Inverse folding.
């Protein structure tokens, strides 16, 4: 009996070590060894957008909620025209996002956001071409699954630009929030290729 008890305790110890690794060692390793250049190249190939940020911090809490925070997020079209900027973006998800490309988005908090809405001469929104070009295979997944969550924004500025005839205007909001249902409806209307919405 003592022999089996020892085996059981060793098994428990291994589980606790794995658990500790998941909530401390693994996220810290991912943060410190994040390859920004490789990410930017893959992101451009996968989305057709230039996506950059200055640093990333990944933490896993004891309940396995995973928090991914980036600073100075800047997204541009390949021709360098601006699309989206945020001084910080904090995503709360499940740990499955790090392991299986299955993102259960519990919340997304953004600060100091600048969004540029650009209308082409054809009348189409320039962003409309993103869903068709989206290809997650460059990140090692044939399809990415997302369960949308609420989005909270502090200090939002939106610029509206029409090319022909040219016009430009901006709107500002101190705070903005969007429910998970609103985000889900928006993503479903986009018809993203290789993206499953739960």
């Amino acid at each position: 009996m003592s022999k089996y008890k020892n085996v059981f305790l060793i098994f428990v110890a291994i589980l606790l070590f794995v658990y500790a690794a998941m909530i401390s060692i693994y996220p810290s390793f991912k943060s410190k060894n994040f390859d920004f250049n490789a990410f930017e190249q893959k992101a451009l190939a996968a989305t057709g957008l230039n996506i950059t940020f200055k640093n990333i911090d990944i933490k896993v809490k004891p309940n396995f909620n995973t928090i991914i925070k980036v600073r100075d997020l800047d997204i541009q079209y390949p021709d360098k025209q601006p699309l989206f900027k945020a001084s910080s973006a904090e995503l709360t998800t499940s740990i499955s996002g790090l392991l299986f490309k299955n993102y259960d988005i519990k919340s997304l908090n953004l600060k100091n956001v600048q969004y540029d809405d650009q209308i082409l001469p054809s009348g189409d929104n320039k962003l409309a071409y993103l869903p068709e070009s989206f290809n997650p295979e460059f990140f090692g997944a044939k399809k990415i699954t997302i369960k949308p969550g609420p989005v909270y924004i502090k200090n939002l500025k939106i610029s509206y630009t029409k090319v022909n005839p040219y016009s430009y205007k901006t709107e500002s909001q101190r705070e903005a929030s969007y429910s998970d249902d609103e985000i889900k409806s928006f993503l479903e209307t986009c018809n993203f290729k290789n993206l499953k919405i739960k």
